[in-house]
Amino acid sequence: MEAVPARARAYVACVVLGALACLLPPPAPRTPWWAMTLLAVLYAGGEWLARRRFPGTFYPVLLAGVFLLPPPAAALVALPGALLSPAGRRPARLRRIWRAAELVIAVWAAGRAFRALGGRDAVAACDVPHALGPAAGAVVVFCAVLTVLDGGILVAAERRPARRAWRGLFLRSLAPVGVHGLAGLMMAVLWRSPYGPVAALLVLLPMGVSWWAFAQYHRERGAHQATIRALVQAVDIKDGYTRGHSERVGQASMMIARELGMDDERVEVLRFAGILHDVGKLGVPTRLLRKDGPLTPEERRVIELHPEYGHEMVRGISFLGEARAAVLHHHERLDGSGYPYGLVGRQIPEPARVVAVADAFDAMTSTRSYSRARPVPVALEELERCAGRQFDPVMVAALVRAVRRAGWDPVVTADGVRPPRVPRPVTGRTGADR
């Protein structure tokens, strides 16, 4: 079993106690136990299927319980599904307990909000327009509770800074949970209508179709990721000194793209570009990649062919889009002194200008056979010094802002040992030229 920090276990224990409090007092005798049992079975089956087949979770039935049942009874609906669904990673038991506890609290709070806003009477009257407002309020409360609890576990278990733990969690969950909430409301209204529970269950059919389409998309995305992962692993095996470099350049490229306000699709493309920028090294002799000391002019010319090799390798991979241009041009310089084509200024594609900065930054903050790692502030100063001549000043400024705000995980060398932070004299070499 993986070690879990004591403070994370204590946090989980507190959330479990809160969940137990939400289940008290027990549901009243007039609670429709058969309805609660049916919803619990449906949720457990849907959650099990979602965890195994789909990249998500199954909330429509759970939220239908929020709209149909008293809060403690609706909270009970979540228990079987959370406790029996696949946990993913270890420790499985603790993860299931945590999942069950946070869902009980979120469902209970959403149920209380729904009733306080008058949603119970609207659903009983099958009045959809008047039920929409309370349902929206319940969805917001549900997402807010999950956001607070999930951010807390990130702080407790992963020691993530508090200012970053909650960033984006609420907004990312609101849209998908809102769609599930609408389906749950339709189920609740049909359940209360003369057509009864059978009609309510029909709502799950279009949800199933949409999930199937969603799953197809994610399977294709998974195949893309597997393709990239295989290429990167091949480079890491061939050039052991830069192991992990590609992933870090992908991360830095993504930070720059987000700082520049690019949309999610372009951010993903820039991440691919950073990860694959050195894939052309598969075409370079291993003895040159692993050579200690300086390269001869002839050896350097061979190394400088790797962008063209890489572009040939990825040219037929359509989903990479403009990332292919970054693979080819990430060693170009604004003043025209780069390679392979000596492009100048805006002739260099934007993704290549992003990756060039990310590549140089990680090269300077990594220990390799021919250079020792520089501290992050020194590397940022060097990038700023070279901005306008070697690097695009806009990209440099974006990385500087992102790193100073969010920080940068220190380098890990090929053997997994963190090197000492030894400053080097500032020179014209950024470390990304090899």
Automatic annotation (TrEMBL):
Keywords: Hydrolase, Membrane, Transmembrane, Transmembrane helix. Residues 220-415 form the HD-GYP domain. Its EC number is 3.1.4.-. Signal peptide: none annotated. One of its GO terms (molecular function) is hydrolase activity. The keyword Disulfide bond does not apply. Residues 242-364 form the HD domain. It comes from the Bacteria. NCBIfam families: HDIG. This is HD-GYP domain-containing protein. It comes from Streptomyces cinereospinus. The lineage of its organism: Bacteria, Bacillati, Actinomycetota, Actinomycetes, Kitasatosporales.
